Amino acid sequence: MTKAKIGFIGLGVMGGAMVSRLQDRGYAVTVLGNRDRTEIDKAIARGAKEATSARSLAQASDVVMICVGTSDQVESRLRGDDGVITGIKPGTVVIDFGTSLPASTRALGAEVTANGGALLDAPIGRTPSHAREGKINLMCAGEADAFEKVRPVLDDLAENVFHLGQLGNGHAIKLINNFFGQTVANALAEGFAMADILGIERKQLFDVMFAGPLGSPFMEFMAAYAIDGDPSKLAFSIRNATKDVGYYDQMAKDAGAPSVMAGGALGALQDATNSGRGEALVPELIDYFTERLARR
């Protein structure tokens, strides 16, 4: 069977890794320019074509993939005279791989459908190195027929592909997942900082906690920095964590059920970002809490 023609918007570190995987699997790819051309130029060197606008990219594609940071960025690339929606052909499937607000996703889905296409949300689990190997996880949601149409492409990109029901459910589950993870990360970071204040060795704290039911790979990621100084095991920035927990908080409010738990993690993440730590990685929250608790 002829492989679908892919249009890809958002060649950052993750998007670039996904495009590399698609090219490895023999897909023809059209890409859209980015301020940082590192991954764009790599893709072009391997045969990708560069579009002049989101509209022209959609016109050249059977499947349009978007991997950008915020709902506002997704909306700006889909809407407008030069947006994806004006260029899609009947039957085009648009996939949002980012972490977006479900309400925004559903509004965009109605607009894509009105223009003859279908929108799926498919936020990503795992890392760019997994993406290069086709081993990411995808939390996909949206129209079942559209999902089955692009399932072969998704299977080439991912080790685990979940279909989670109506459009927006993938983004909702990703936000719940990230809210939980960042709440744990903040609690662990404060715990290590508190151990310092009490004169307890961080490794002693970790060994006791890890031996019990709290032990998890996530705890190991945080401990890699707390004990060994390596933050790269959880290569996710504090700024992105702030955005995701903020989106979770907004999603809860949109549902008429304001979160009880989000405020603590969100407040700490916002404070850490505002204090200049936004580009640091999440395990480095330990430094933020160490400084903050020292203000006592």
Characterization of the model:
- This protein has 296 residues and is an alpha/beta fold.
- It contains 14 helices and 9 strands.
- The strands form 2 sheets. A 6-stranded parallel beta sheet has the order 3-2-1-4-5-6, with helices on both faces. A 3-stranded mixed beta sheet has the order 7-8-9.
- β1, α1 and β2 form a beta-alpha-beta unit.
- The model has no long low-confidence stretch (mean pLDDT 96).
User: What quaternary form is this?
Assistant: single chain
Major beta-sheet overview: 6 strands, parallel
Task: Flag low-confidence runs.
Answer: none
Q: State the total count of DSSP E strands.
A: 9
Main-sheet strand order equals 3-2-1-4-5-6
- Report how far the terminal alpha carbons are from each other: 66 Å
Percent of residues in beta strands?
A: 5-15%
Mean pLDDT, nearest integer?
96
Give the topology.
Blueprint (H helix, E strand, L loop, with lengths): L5 E4 L3 H12 L4 E4 L5 H8 L3 E3 L2 H6 L3 E4 L4 H8 L5 H4 L5 E4 L5 H13 L3 E4 L2 E2 L2 H5 L3 E5 L3 H14 E6 L5 H30 L3 H10 L5 H12 L9 H17 L7 H16 L7 H10 L2
Describe this protein with a few key phrases:
single chain, 3-stranded mixed β-sheet, 14 helices, alpha/beta, 6-stranded parallel β-sheet, 296 residues
Q: What is the gist of this entry?
A:
This protein has 296 residues and is an alpha/beta fold. The protein has helices at residues 13-24, 38-45, 54-59, 71-78, 84-87, 102-114, 128-132, 144-157, 169-198, 202-211, 217-228, 238-254, 262-277, 285-294, and strands at residues 6-9, 29-32, 49-51, 63-66, 93-96, 118-121, 124-125, 136-140, 158-163. The strands form 2 sheets. A 6-stranded parallel beta sheet has the order 3-2-1-4-5-6, with helices on both faces.
